[in-house]
């Protein structure tokens, strides 16, 4: 339910006033300011609501966020010990991230805790819009599998975001940089289930959200390796009414974005499902979605791995060798089938995220066939080779066409290079976020 109130806006108005160029930014004098959840409407404020309302300064605190703290730059400088390099956690398209600590009494109602502070780099790939999307979406959405936005800072040209500190950093670091150690099978599966629950929550919300940037670096891990989604800078409100999709400029990360979204700009929740399939493949294989250091035919993970997912023996050959065979072959095969369907080239053949959760969660209990001790390079001996019932899509792929012509291969091809696509009319909007390692 949307409602607009004009008599109760100081915190939000000053945030937007200052941050959308209307003057009156949140300054150091607003130290104890906190944007609270509204008492009225109950519905989430959509990004579109906000943009429209911001134009005519008609916004209500009651529609905004939950318990967001408004910080000043000096407060965050103190919390991070002057953004000292020893506190540097990493850097993405928005800017650098630093670890910090808020002491007792710095903010009324905020308990002393470790935080992660993300600073906007004006030279970076993202800007104010992404900052605002993060505040709007993450400020209002609360779920155990979404990272908690503690607050923000919007002072003059400064844009900062303050998150709960996630002790084990990103899934990307663990999978590909193996910091501090190889993630065991059960942890990987738990992470996949947690991340799937985060996406399912977004898709099934009263006002659905399409996350649009699902990838290993945006899955953060807390002290118990519980997965939480971060970075809502590219998130979009889902289609409304009879609309089947949102038309948007194509943004995302090379290797994770769904092929039909890249080609048409039509965004649906199923685009997230495809990206989930890519991450699930990364979790299973320990390979990056795009890896230019590998031989040509192995560089695109989906193209390389999808044909192996249905056959347990072929699957065993591509599972992450770092696991040293310490996984349940049955669970791995079932998880691989989930990935297979998520990666269908046809969005309607991909499962909903709630179905993905239902399929993956029971696999956590499949532990009786985990080998004791390391096994050979292609994984454990596969004793259980269940021939799965062909699902509808597979049946279709196998069946000859009525017109007698051969079917086109169904495997998705995400091979359109940004340069090639630059000639197409939509191209001016295409923004590649290259995986961290290729940014340099
Ligand atoms: N809340 C947090 N707690 C702990 N570490 C964090 C937190 N948020 C981010 N980080 C660290 O900072 C790094 C950079 O994060 P950031 O989201 O800015 O970039 P990215 O995900 O690598 O790229 P992109 O800009 O494409 O999202 C992460 O990989 C992670 O290691
Ligand atoms: Mg990120």
UniProtKB/TrEMBL annotation:
Using the UniProt record, give the first listed, main subcellular location: membrane
Q: Where is this region: Disordered?
A: 390-423
Classification via CDD domains: STKc_IRAK (cd14066)
State the superkingdom: Eukaryota
Q: Which GO terms describe its molecular function?
A: ATP binding; protein serine/threonine kinase activity
Q: Does the keyword Nucleotide-binding apply?
A: yes
Question: GO cellular component terms?
Answer: plasma membrane
Q: Where is the composition biased (Basic and acidic residues)?
A: 393-402
The EC number on file is 2.7.11.1
Keywords, sorted A to Z: ATP-binding, Cell membrane, Kinase, Membrane, Nucleotide-binding, Serine/threonine-protein kinase, Transferase
Compartments in which it is found: Cell membrane
Q: Which InterPro entries match?
A: Kinase-like_dom_sf, Plant_Ser_Thr_Prot_Kinase, Prot_kinase_dom, Ser-Thr/Tyr_kinase_cat_dom, Ser/Thr_kinase_AS
Q: Reply yes or no: does the keyword Kinase apply.
A: yes
Supply the PROSITE patterns for this chain. Answer: PROTEIN_KINASE_DOM (PS50011), PROTEIN_KINASE_ST (PS00108)
* Domain Protein kinase, chain residue ranges per copy: 83-364
Please report which protein family the annotation says this sequence is part of. Answer: Belongs to the protein kinase superfamily. Ser/Thr protein kinase family.
- Main function: May be involved in plant defense signaling.
Which protein, by its recorded name, is this? non-specific serine/threonine protein kinase
Natural source organism:
Eleusine coracana subsp. coracana
